[in-house]
């Protein structure tokens, strides 16, 4: 499904790839929609697992830069082949499958929550100036990352991904207090 897209992948394709009979497949999945829902859950969890690798201990701007390096490093290791599993599924399903769109929106909201919680923890530690909208910054960082992932897939290079993430993280850094800014190793 990730290689061909959901609409262009048949049940027969899945059976052949998995090496199972139709009765085995239908034992676990009532229909293709149930299989697609399971794929979304699997891919959503995989994407969030990667985010947690870089964001679970978000305590300062340097941690965001390390997360950025992790994301760019993964894309580099993949030779920018394939897009974000969630982004690819969203592109494929959002206009044709309301249930899948809602399921994908939940995963994107979870990814945004991870970012938002990390920035909120930094704010609670007094690292941001008064009035900093960390919710909006988290959303901007997710949007920049998604756009960068798409462009890295199209262009087969990470320049756009790095530029998008760098720009938003730099903008986040502009909201740091003077004390927090002095503690940043990377700018």
From TrEMBL:
<feature type="domain" description="HTH tetR-type">
    <location>
        <begin position="1"/>
        <end position="47"/>
    </location>
</feature>
<feature type="DNA-binding region" description="H-T-H motif">
    <location>
        <begin position="10"/>
        <end position="29"/>
    </location>
</feature>
<protein>
    <submittedName>
        <fullName>TetR family transcriptional regulator</fullName>
    </submittedName>
</protein>
<keyword id="KW-0805">Transcription regulation</keyword>
<keyword id="KW-0238">DNA-binding</keyword>
<dbReference type="InterPro" id="IPR001647">
    <property type="entry name" value="HTH_TetR"/>
</dbReference>
<dbReference type="GO" id="GO:0003677">
    <property type="term" value="F:DNA binding"/>
</dbReference>
<dbReference type="Pfam" id="PF00440">
    <property type="entry name" value="TetR_N"/>
</dbReference>
<dbReference type="InterPro" id="IPR011075">
    <property type="entry name" value="TetR_C"/>
</dbReference>
<dbReference type="InterPro" id="IPR009057">
    <property type="entry name" value="Homeodomain-like_sf"/>
</dbReference>
<keyword id="KW-0804">Transcription</keyword>
<dbReference type="Pfam" id="PF16925">
    <property type="entry name" value="TetR_C_13"/>
</dbReference>
<dbReference type="InterPro" id="IPR036271">
    <property type="entry name" value="Tet_transcr_reg_TetR-rel_C_sf"/>
</dbReference>
């Amino acid at each position: 499904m990730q290689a061909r897209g959901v609409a262009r992948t048949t049940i027969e394709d899945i059976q052949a790839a998995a090496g199972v009979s139709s009765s085995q497949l239908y034992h676990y999945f009532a229909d293709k929609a149930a299989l697609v829902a399971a794929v979304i859950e699997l891919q959503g969890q995989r994407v969030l697992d990667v985010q947690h690798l870089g964001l679970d201990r978000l305590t300062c701007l340097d941690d965001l830069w390390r997360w950025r390096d992790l994301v760019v490093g993964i894309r580099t290791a993949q030779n920018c082949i394939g897009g974000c599993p969630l982004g690819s599924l969203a592109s494929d399903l959002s206009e044709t499958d309301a249930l899948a769109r809602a399921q994908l929106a939940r995963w994107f909201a979870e990814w945004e929550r991870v970012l938002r919680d990390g920035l909120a923890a930094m704010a609670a530690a007094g690292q941001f100036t008064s009035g900093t909208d960390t919710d909006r910054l988290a959303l901007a960082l997710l949007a920049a990352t998604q756009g960068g992932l798409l462009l890295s897939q199209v262009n087969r290079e990470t320049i756009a991904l790095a530029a998008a993430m760098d720009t938003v993280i730099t903008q986040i850094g502009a909201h740091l207090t003077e004390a927090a800014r002095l503690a940043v190793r990377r700018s």
